[in-house]
Amino acid sequence: QEYSTTDVFFLPTLAEGSAGVVREALSWGIPCVVTREAGCPVVDGESGHVIPTRSPLAIADSIQNIVADRARRNYMSEGAYRCAANGAHDRLSRKLSEILAQLHED
């Protein structure tokens, strides 16, 4: 129920792998601000922002960018729905499996 009133979801992780909570937020149409280490299918500028780790300025700018501009937030919300509906996390999982299989062969 909290998701229904959320403007932006933020996960500034240093090491996550693949955060299911971000995929859940995307499925609710919530733009996400994440670090690269979150391992999530967020598309920078489309379904949220992917920011550098340990960058307070990037954190503040990205969140402000979304909440201050309702049209941008709505655009990213649609992008979040598309990202979730397109199964971006499934493609990510397949790609990771391919990479691991290749490494195993080498």
Pick out its properties.
mainly alpha; 3-stranded parallel beta sheet; 51% helix
Total helices: the number is 4
**What string gives the helices and strands in order?**
EHEEHHH
Oligomer: single chain
Any idea what the radius of gyration is?
A: 14 Å
> How can the largest sheet be summarized?
3 strands, parallel
Q: Ends: how far apart?
A: 47 Å
User: Strand-residue fraction?
Assistant: 5-15%
Structural class: mainly alpha
Instruction: Provide the residue-averaged pLDDT.
Output: 86
Short description:
By secondary structure, the protein is mainly alpha-helical. The chain is 51% helix and 10% strand. The longest helix has 18 residues, at 88-105.
Overview of the structural elements:
- The protein has 106 residues and is mainly alpha-helical.
- The chain is 51% helix and 10% strand.
- The chain is built from 4 helices and 3 strands.
- Strand 1 (9-11), helix 1 and strand 2 form a beta-alpha-beta unit.
- Helix 1 crosses helix 3 (70-85).
- The longest helix is centred in the C-terminal third of the chain and has 18 residues, at 88-105.
- The mean pLDDT is 86.
Write the layout of secondary structure elements.
Blueprint: E1 9-11, H1 20-27, E2 32-35, E3 48-51, H2 56-67, H3 70-85, H4 88-105
Parallel strand pairs: 1-2, 2-3
Helix pairs in contact: 1-3
